[in-house]
Amino acid sequence: NCIDLKCDENTGKCKECKNTSFGDFCTENCSSNCLDNICNQDGKCKSCITGKFGYNCSQDCKENCENSCDQESGDCDACKFNYYGDKCEPCPENCKKSDNSCDRFTGRCNLCEQGFWGEKCTQNCSQFFCKDSCEQTSGVCDSCKMGYYKHQNNSCVRCNENCKKDENNEPMCD
């Protein structure tokens, strides 16, 4: 398995192995996880088959990697839908569920589930007394809860206590 039968005349060790073998005497086979079974003289795969990484490609890429991952670090080259970053973490919990709920690199939500706002939809619209939903980047309410009205600055302000009350004794205002 020595290339051109070139070996050290004193030790008999091969100077270079054929691509699919390695070791001092080129008697060991490269890992079957090496792409095309090709490895260096020391057994390190030159590249891995899809879904594998590591010195001899014996480790599995994370299941959320689209296809392959970096041979050294195992970081994903690309993520499946609804995952993001080098490690393909799940999109934030309150991103609106779709084929692609967050940015594949930053994890920023494309849209938020109703009732949430912010880059990763971690802020609750109800903290501003919103009825149901609010604007994703600012948190400005679409409409206000009962007992509140939309002020000129777009915030929800409590109705005056002297206003007419509803059946729950909450003030009503326009």
Report on this model:
The protein has 174 residues and is mainly β. The chain is 0% helix and 13% strand. It contains no helices and ten strands. The chain has strands spanning 21-22, 28-29, 52-53, 59-60, 83-84, 89-90, 116-117, 123-124, 148-150, 156-158. Strands 1-2 form a two-stranded antiparallel ribbon. The protein has a two-stranded antiparallel ribbon with strand order 3-4. A hairpin with a 5-residue loop joins strand 3 (52-53) and strand 4 (59-60). The protein is rod-shaped, with a radius of gyration of 30 Å. The N and C termini lie far apart (88 Å).
**Strand element count:** 10
Shape: rod-shaped
Low-confidence stretches: none
Computed structural class: mainly beta
Number of helices: 0
What is the succession of H and E elements? EEEEEEEEEE
Radius of gyration: 30 Å
Mean pLDDT: 87
Strand arrangement, major sheet? 1-2
Report strand %: 5-15%
Largest sheet: 2 strands, antiparallel
Spatial separation of the terminal alpha carbons = 88 Å
Percent of residues in helices comes to: under 10%
Keywords:
two-stranded antiparallel ribbon; mainly beta; 10 strands; 174 residues; rod-shaped
How would you concisely characterize the structure shown here?
The protein is mostly beta strands. Helix content is 0%, strand content 13%.
Describe the secondary-structure layout.
Layout: E1 21-22, E2 28-29, E3 52-53, E4 59-60, E5 83-84, E6 89-90, E7 116-117, E8 123-124, E9 148-150, E10 156-158
Antiparallel strand pairs: 1-2, 3-4, 5-6, 7-8, 9-10
